[in-house]
Amino acid sequence: MQITFVQSGALRPAPALDEYVSVTSEIGSADGPKADEPEGGSRKTRETAVSERRFRFLVAGYAVSSYGTFLNMVALNLFVYETTGRALAMGLFMAVRLASGFVAGLVVGGLLARFTAKSIMLWANVGQGAVMLVLILAPDSLVTGALMAVSVVIGACGTLFMVALRSSIPEMVGEDRRAWANSLSITGRSLAMVAGFASAGVVVSLVGYTAAFLLDMATFVVCAVTVALLPIAGGKGAGSAAAPEASGSAEDASGAGKRGRRWKPVAFLALAAAPGLGLMVALRGVDAFGSSSHNAALPIYSTSLDASNPAVFVSAFWCVWALGNIGAQQVIQRYAQRTGRSVGALGFGYGTVVMSAAFIAAFAGFPLAVTAVIALIAGAADGLTEVAYTSHLQTLPATLRGHAFGLSATFENLGFGVGMILVAAALDRFSPLAVVGWSHGAAIVVAVVFLLRVASLRRAEPAGPMGRAGRTGLGKDEAVEGRPDRGDRDGAEVSRG
Q1: What's the rounded Cα separation, in Å, for the pair 284 and 102?
Q2: DSSP 8-state symbol, 470
Q3: Which is nearest to 124 in space by CA: 265, 235, 240?
Q4: Phi and psi dihedrals of 235, rounded to 5?
Q5: What does 102-126 look like in DSSP terms, one character per residue?
Q6: By three-state DSSP, how is residue 235 classified?
């Protein structure tokens, strides 16, 4: 698919590139700071320092709420099973949670066009904290209904917060600091995941479910207060000017169309921005499908290793995985700071291949020391793909960015949800290695197709000021991510029809 984006104002002619490249070449002037702005160096340095300091505080609050998310992922599942006595109820709880995230991904782009990112992030945390309070106060006769409400709100609000945060990062820290900001937020989430999973069993066993839910609620309150106190850019009105034009709908452009339908064409136009971008999001969904397999297979594989204490291997695996993820973030942050570049779409493709292969190898029965190294590699590759993917979607104009991240979240929830159903059925008949092998094998196949597509786009890219030849000799302050005219295209952004 190939489309033409129309922004308010005239686009510079670029006969060698398609319309998408023309639009993305304007991102710096529309959505973020330029490297050659006529501002004093000291003023820019102060502004950058202030924005980065604020973002660190935001990431700290996000990490706290992420801890609560992973804590309740374990505690709530245990509580559901203890309350109902049925494993099917746990599956239903997770299905409702994923379905809520799926729906939220479809609507969040429209919400970001109408409300500020700050308000969405604030109320997402308020909603999660409030529903946990409802669960705590619910009488025994209403516990089941309260649990369903929790699954709906937690699933939807988690997606709303994540999309609002990621789509607004270019406005918060500037185009040239996106990779650093993405890496920092992923590091905070990885640390929170390890802490949440590791402490959930201890918290529940020592202080009980009510105290665990109170702690969970407190984490969302902390994040809500952090968001409320910080000035956060992004969101409201980002798509108000260009969305009608981008949708190509005369009714919407004239105001005669239905407002509730405007997000639909814009969301899919965001994926159609370039053939490589749509394939990239599809690969993300297939990767989520593969992730469902190792998440479901790890407890079974761990039980086969040590039936008396299966939690040891699972906990150790995720801790080592997190170390690899955090280590990769440190390397990426330093790379971005030194060069002003992100790892790009190629990093996403290669990282997906390495990550999927590592997860398959983790179930191959290697000695524990070798498996630990494999888990470390899987974590590092996972961290690389997360930063590369997020940074790449952030090269879209603000008018489309929220829609793209929303649809991405929908694809991820769909892939993971469908995967959990199929994997659960397959594990009854096949070994964990076989199930993980074909699940992550599918991700490897799509990743190879994606890499071939990116390579063909790179070969088709013309030499010149805006082509490969234009990338040579750029200084650090010129290498602003998301500016194709400054030589920082990674290939997937170029559509050659």
Answers
A1: 14
A2: G
A3: 235
A4: 95, -120
A5: HHHHHHHHHHHHHSBHHHHHHHHHH
A6: strand
Inter-helix orientation angle 178-229/311-339, to 10°: 110
Q: Which residues of 32-55 are buried (b: 16+ CB within 10 A; e: fewer)?
A: bbbbeeeeeeeeeeeeeeebbebb
Angle between helix axes 87-114 and 117-137 (nearest 10 degrees) is: 150
Question: In angstroms, rounded to a whole number, what is the distance separating the alpha carbons of residues 57 and 227?
Answer: 9
Q: Which two tokens stand for residue 192?
A: 């929170």
Amino acid at 73: M
- Between the alpha carbon of residue 352 and those of residues 234, 288, 357, 363, 395, the distances in Å are 29, 11, 8, 17, 20
Point out which residues pair with 235 in neighbouring strands: 116
Convert the pLDDT of each residue in 219-229 to its tens digit: 999 999 999 98
Residues linked to residue 116 through DSSP beta bridges, in sequence order: 235
CA distance from start to end of the chain: 8
Query: Which residue type sits at 61?
Result: G
DSSP secondary structure letter of residue 12: P
Other CB atoms within 10 A of residue 88 CB = 9
Say how far apart CA 468 and CA 461 lie, in whole Å.
Answer: 7
CA–CA separation, 14 and 6 (whole Å): 14
Up-side HSE of residue 214: CA atoms within 13 Å toward CB?
A: 7
How many CB atoms are located within 10 Å of the residue 233 CB? 18
pLDDT digits (tens, 9 = 90+) for 430-474: 898 999 999 999 999 999 999 988 888 777 665 544 444 334 333
What count of residues does the chain have?
497
Cα-based torsion angle of the residue sequence 119, 120, 126, 129 in order, rounded to the nearest 10 degrees: -160
CA distance 140 to 146: 10
The whole-angstrom separation of Cα 462 and Cα 308 is 62
What are the respective helix, strand and coil percentages of the chain, to the nearest 5? 80, 0, 20
User: 170-212, pLDDT tens digit by residue?
Assistant: 888 877 778 788 888 888 888 888 888 778 777 877 888 888 8
